[in-house]
Structures are given as structure tokens and as C-alpha cells.
Specification:
The structure is a single chain. By secondary structure, the chain is of the alpha+beta class. It has 5 helices and 3 strands. Strands 1-3-2 form a 3-stranded antiparallel sheet, with helices on one face. Strand 2 and strand 3 form a beta hairpin. It is elongated. The C terminus is likely disordered.
């Protein structure tokens, strides 16, 4: 939009970018879009993207939260990143483990080890061998 864009657009632009969405004029609204209302008037719509690029957006979000690229994180922070990515559904996506491993600069086995470690109960006396 131009200099006369609605202030709500300026406010929501970073949010739309963070979630992989796009701000559009009301005239371009399709059934899946979210109307943006301000003082009773629809001033535009937010269109969310599908799963294309979803893992990349999740990784970018985690990198912002942890303050560095996944590859540069310490082992502990990589484990935290895997936990956060798990909570947000990253590993439900096709090739999620492989793509996260590549972004971290580790093997798939390392990611699986982090995932398995999260499933283990905290050492509370019922240790398993193996």
C-alpha cells in the first residue's frame, strides 16, 4: 500500500511476516482470509499461507527466540530448539527431522537422540538400560 495505508496495516505488517501471511486490500478477500476490522470498518484482510515454507518460518522464529542460527547454538540450546520445534509441530511435517538436522549442522540421529531424551522420564529411579 502507499503512504495513505491504514495505521492498522503498519501495526500488523511484522505480525503477518512472522506468521507467513500477507496483508491485502478488502477487494481481494477470499473465503479463507481474516478480515481486519478497525472501528467497525473492514480495512483489509490477512491471508495466511499454507504449509509451504512452514518449517522455514518455524526455524526462523526459534532462531529469533534463541538469538542465533540453529547451527551456531550450543548443544543445550539445540536441545531446547528441538523441544520448541516439537511443541510447534515441526516434526509432523514431511522431512522435518532431516531439514532441522541440516539447519543445525547435525545428523538425523542426533535429532532423534534429542527427541528420545525428551520422552525419557527425568531420572526418578526407573532407569532403563540400553
Amino acid at each position: 500500500m502507499s503512504d495513505d495505508e491504514h495505521p492498522l496495516w503498519r501495526t500488523l505488517r511484522p505480525v503477518a511476516a512472522a506468521v507467513g501471511g500477507e496483508l491485502l486490500p478488502t477487494g481481494e478477500q477470499t473465503p479463507g482470509d481474516i478480515p481486519l476490522e478497525f472501528e467497525g470498518e473492514t480495512v483489509g484482510v490477512l491471508r495466511l499461507q499454507g504449509l509451504d515454507g512452514a518449517l522455514g518460518r518455524l526455524i526462523e522464529t526459534i532462531e529469533r527466540e534463541l538469538g542465533d542460527s540453529l547451527a551456531n547454538l550450543s548443544r543445550t540450546d539445540k536441545q531446547i530448539a528441538v523441544r520448541l520445534l516439537t511443541e510447534r509441530g515441526a516434526f509432523l511435517l514431511r522431512k522435518g527431522v532431516e531439514d532441522v538436522a541440516a539447519a543445525m549442522g547435525v545428523s538425523r540421529i542426533t535429532i532423534y537422540n534429542y527427541l528420545n531424551a525428551m520422552e525419557q522420564p527425568a531420572s526418578g529411579g526407573r532407569d532403563r538400560e540400553g
